[in-house]
Amino acid sequence: MNTLLCPWEQAQYLIFSSNIPALFFYSHLPAVLIALLLGIIILYKGNKSPANIFLFIITLLFSAWTTIDLILWATNRPDMVMFYWSLQILLEPLIYAASVYFAYLFITGKDFAFKGKMLLTVLLLPFIIFLSTKLTLIGVDLADCTAIEGPISLYYTYIFEFVSIVTILGIVIHNHRKTIDQNRKKEIEYFGVGIILFLLAFSWGNTIGSFTENWTLAQAGLIGMPIFFGFLAYISVKFKTFNMKILGAQVLIFALGFLVLSMSFVRKIQNIKLIIFFTLGFVIILGYQLIKSVKKEVKQREQLEILSEQLMVANDKLKELDKLKTEFISLATHQIRSPLTAIKGYASMIIDGSYGEMTPKVKEAVDIIMQSSTNLAVTIEDFLNVSKIESGGMKYEKVNFDMGEMASSMMRGIAVNAEKKGLKIDYSDDKTGPYIVNGDQEKLRQVVLNFIDNSIKYTKAGEVNVSVTRVGNKIHFAVKDTGMGMTPEIKKTLFHKFARGDGQRMNTTGSGLGLYLAKEIAKAHGGDVGVESEGMGLGSTFYMDLDAIK
Question: Among 3.30.565.10, 3.40.50.720, 3.30.365.10, 3.30.420.40, what is the CATH number of 399-547?
Fold first, then answer.
C-alpha cells in the first residue's frame, strides 16, 4: 500500500470515512437510486426502444459517476484517487454524448446518421487516448486528496460539454419549430428543459469544483438528475411518452423510502432538522401531485362508469333495433315475393303467347317487366339470405359433389349472356379431377353464378375464363376477366355489405350483397374467397378455396 496517505482514516466499504461531508449520503444515494429505479421502470415496463435503452444507459453512467464521487471523498489513498478520478473523467463525457444521442432519438424518432456517430466517436477519442497521461491527470494534492488536473480535464472536457448542450438545444429548437402537433410541441419543450437543466447543473457542479476547488459546493449539481426525471415522469403521464403510466403513489413511496434510508447515514443530530424540512417539502410537493392525480383518476373512473351504463343501455337498444330490422326485412321480402311471383308468371305467359299475339312495342315492354322482376327477385333473395345469416337461421345441406362439373355446367348455362356482349368465355382445369368438395350445392352454386355473372357484367371487351384447379389440399375455383379491374382501396371493402366499388357505373341493378353473401357462404364451408387485380382497367380474378375431399 502507498505510505503517503491523506490526513484521515482509511475508508471502510469504499464509501465510509470521516472526510465525507455530513449531508453527502443524503444527496448522493437518493440521486443514484431514483435514477436507477426510473430508468429500469421506463426500460422494462415501457418498451425496449433505442431511446429507452439510451435513457437507461445514462442512468447507469450517472449512478456510476455519483458512486465513484462518494469513493473519492471517502478514500485517503492517492492511488485510489488517481484511478477513480480518471474513471470519472471518462464517464462524464460519456454521459453528455449519451444525452445528445438520447435527445436526438427521443425528439426525432430516428437514429443518428453515420456521420453523426463518427463525429461523436472522434470527439470522445481524446478522453480515451490520453486518459493515463499527464494531459488528463498530473497528480494528487495530499492535503485533501484531490487530483491535479491536466488540460484535457480542465479545458477539453468543458468544451465538449458546452458543445453537447448547444447541440441538444439546437435539436430541440429545430424540431419544435417544424412540429405542427401542439401536444408534441409541449412534449419537446418539457423534455428539452429537463435534459438541459440536468446537463447545466452537472456542468456547473464540476466547473465550480475544478476552477474554485470548492468540491462541497460542486455536489449541488447532482440535483439535476432528479429534476430531469421529474420532467420525464411528467411527460410520461401527460403524453404517454414511454407507453407506460408512472403512478404517483409508487414514485412517492419509493422516493420517501430512499430519503429515509439516506437519513440513517447522517452522523450529526444538528443536521436532522435541515433534512426533515427538505423531506417535508418533498412530501408536500409529491403529495399534492398525488392527491391531484387520484382525484383526476377517481373523476375519470366515475365518468367511465356512467358512460359504461349508458353504453350498455344503448347496446341493448341497438340489439333490439337490429332484431326488429332483421324481422322487418324478412317480413317485407316475403310479402314482396308473392306478388312478384305473380308478375313474373303472367309476364312469362304473355311472352309465350298465352294471351295472343303482341305488337313489337308491347313485347318490348313485357320483356322489360320480366327482366326487372327477375332482378328484383334476385335482390329480394339476397336480402333474405343476409337476414338468415345475421339471425343465425341459414341452413346448409352438405353433400359431396364435383366442383369442376358444377363450374363448367354453370359456365355453359350463362355463356349466352357473354356471347351477346361479344365476349369469349371458356372453362379450364388442371386435369387432376375429380374436384370433390363437401357443401351445400345450391348455396355454392350461388357463389359460382355470382362470380361468373359479375365478370360478364363488368367486362366490356375481351374474355372471361372459368377454372378449377387443385392447390395442395384445396380446390381452387376462379373466374378471370379482362374487365374494369380495381384499386387496392376497392379490394379492401369489396366483400363488405353494399360495397360495389366502381362497378355501379357500368351496372346499376346490383344490390351490393352478392359478394358479401359469397364470403359468408364460403366461410360457413370452412373456405375463403378473394380477389386479385393489378389495377384499374387491368381485369380481375375472383376466387374461392374449399377443402378437397379425397
Answer: 3.30.565.10
Identify any residues that bridge with 466 across adjacent strands, giving them in sequence order: 427, 479
Total length of the chain: 550
Residues 6 or more apart in contact with residue 437 via CB below 8 angstroms: 400, 401, 403, 444, 475, 525, 546, 547, 548, 549
Q: Which three cell numbers stand for residue 269?
A: 443530530
Residues 127 and 309: their CA atoms lie apart, in Å, by 64
Query: Does residue 477 contact residue 444 with C-beta atoms inside 8 Å?
Result: no
**Domain residue spans in the chain?**
24-267, 399-547
Say yes or no: do domains 24-267 and 399-547 share a fold: no
Distances (CA, A) of 339 to 24, 265, 326, 328, 382: 96, 97, 21, 18, 18
Residue in the structure block whose three cell numbers are 369469349: 424
Distance CA 222, CA 417 (A): 85
| Rounded Cα gap, residues 427 and 417, in angstroms | 15
CB 453 within 8 A of CB 530: no
| CA–CA separation, 64 and 269 (whole Å) | 29
Condensed to tens digits (0 to 9), the pLDDT of residues 178-198 reads 998 888 898 899 899 989 988
Alpha carbon distance 490, 532 (integer Å): 11
**For residues 125 and 122, what is the distance between their CA atoms, to the nearest angstrom?**
5
What CATH number belongs to 24-267?
1.20.1070.10
| Residues 300-321 pLDDT 10s | 888 888 888 888 888 888 888 7
